[in-house]
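In the laboratory, one determines a bound structure by crystallizing the protein with its ligand and collecting diffraction data. In a computational setting the workflow is compressed into a single prediction: the sequence and the ligand go in, and a structural description comes out. We illustrate the idea with adenosine-5'-triphosphate.
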Amino acid sequence: MVVMIGPVDEPPPVGLRHLPRLCRHALSIAWTAGRGDLILSTGLQVVAGFGLAGLLLIGQSALQSVLDAISGSGSLSDVLPWVLAMSAVAALQSLAGSLQRERQQILGELVSRYIEGRVLDVTVAADLAMFDEPEFHNRVQRMQMSGNQALNMVFGLSGLVRAVVGVTAALVAIVAIAPILLPLLALVVLPAWFAASRRGEAFHKFFWKMTPRDRERHYLGGLLQSRGSAKEVRAFGLAGHLRRRHDQLYDERITELKKVARKQLVVTFGANVMIGAVLAATLLVVAWLSLRGTVPLAAAGIAVAGVALVGGRLAEAGWSAGALTEAGRYLDDYLAFTELLPRVRTARPTGTAPPGFARLTAEDVTFTYPTAPEPALRGVTLEVAAGEVVALVGENGSGKTTLAKLLAGLYRPDAGTIRWDGTDMSTVDPDGWHDHVAVIFQDFERFHLTAADNIGLGRVSAADDLDAIKAAARQAGADGFIEELPKGYATQLGPEFVGGTDLSVGQWQRIALARAFFRGAPFIILDEPTASLDARAEQELFERIRSLLAARTVLLISHRFSSVRSADRIYVLDAGKVVESGDHDALMALGGLYAELFTLQAAAYVEG
Ligand SMILES: Nc1ncnc2c1ncn2[C@@H]1O[C@H](COP(=O)(O)OP(=O)(O)OP(=O)(O)O)[C@@H](O)[C@H]1O
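The predicted complex, in structure-token form:
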């Protein structure tokens, strides 16, 4: 069974009741990523929080001593110790703040690395079929934002610790001065929290909705920036057209964002008006208490400062709690993505691949791509025996590459069975299967690494064996031009990198061939291996293919009939079905599709 995601149009709701679970996850992420920095950073937040209460309590005594000095019941020297104590607490608080910011920066990097690592775990383990799903790519794109927001959640939590400690301690101080202020001040939290979570919800919905269009815009931006597309963009004069589409998508994003921003502004404005009203009411109560003589003047003075300070902090705590709900939405998305990993792992078969290779068979295999309306393969049956060269031919889109991918264990059939020496491969761990297969695709990868690495990647366990790499290069006819490169096998390929150089398409193809030869696998799949080779190189390759790959089995896909005619067996595909099979002579005698295509191609080479 293959894990698929399917389209998800709306973000799942995240409310207050989900917060404890999400906070636990955020803390566990930070704990795993950098527990030392988390402990230190939170500890410093606590110190900074207590500093606020300390300032208020000492401030009250300082103010009292000033008033005593003015009224003559005390002296100015009594003020000095309080002023020094206040300075010391303020300095300590500021030091704790600086240290905390430094630790938080490191923690941020550690959490980012951790989150990126978990996302990579999923993309690396994902079946190839998942890469055919748009929703998979939407999710991967969203993960970039989710990573940052998961980080915000950790920071938000640690900020909340400071706010809660500071506010609680300061509230104790205020309670000592005028307890009646307490319930009033507490009201400040509510509008801030409500507004922040509504703002977050609006933005999160916008972000979710925009992801597919953002991906399209990034794709267009990539076309305008990458070396690969630069030549075609220029030759076809596409820059203006692509740029307009890119800018149009940006315009749409900004228009949508403005709508979200307007909503956010209304909510924020309403919340701030309410916060202001609550603070004003609190200050009026202080004035009233002071005029009635219930609270002494110094205490009233400090209460005013306290209300301003604590009120601000409380509002901040409310905003933080709302921001936490917002970050929680992204964290929830991230967690859902990482939950794909155990699903993918559980769905993956664990059987061991047979040790050798005698025979590979496909029995009545049917396969449909996740996004395709029609099957790409319909009831295909075929056999490849050890030492054989078997060819697949057929018109464009007939299913040759798809069949090769299934035989390489990259996709699993929807129906039918692939057997390797009698073992049903749907029970075998695909990694074990891949170990037995070397495959070069039509659109093979050009690794922007050294020439030696490009070949060595065929068998990572032997990637340091330069002699074996050179031998594979010789077999693929790549040794000559590699040795002429500025640093030979150590030359960086890909001119985008410092010291890098580029190769011709045919030279790249020879390097890809060398990589497949280097793999040393018993079964080799060559999908159009000579498409870019010159006539001499192609002829040499096919003349030598049996000796080169002696004892190995080759599945060859080619549109060049001259190169497949010597195959032991040829399967002709048409619209996902095997319509003919046999050797060249038998197929020509049959006078069917193969004979028609062969004759068409041969006629082009014959004068008249
Ligand atoms: N990733 C994909 N998602 C959806 N459909 C796909 C995908 N890859 C191929 N197809 C479709 O599957 C069918 C078979 O494609 P396949 O690449 O196997 O053909 P082919 O015989 O190798 O063609 P060519 O000779 O052009 O290389 C085609 O109709 C193609 O459009």
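The two ends are 55 Å apart (CA to CA). Keep in mind that any predicted model is a hypothesis to be tested, not a measurement.
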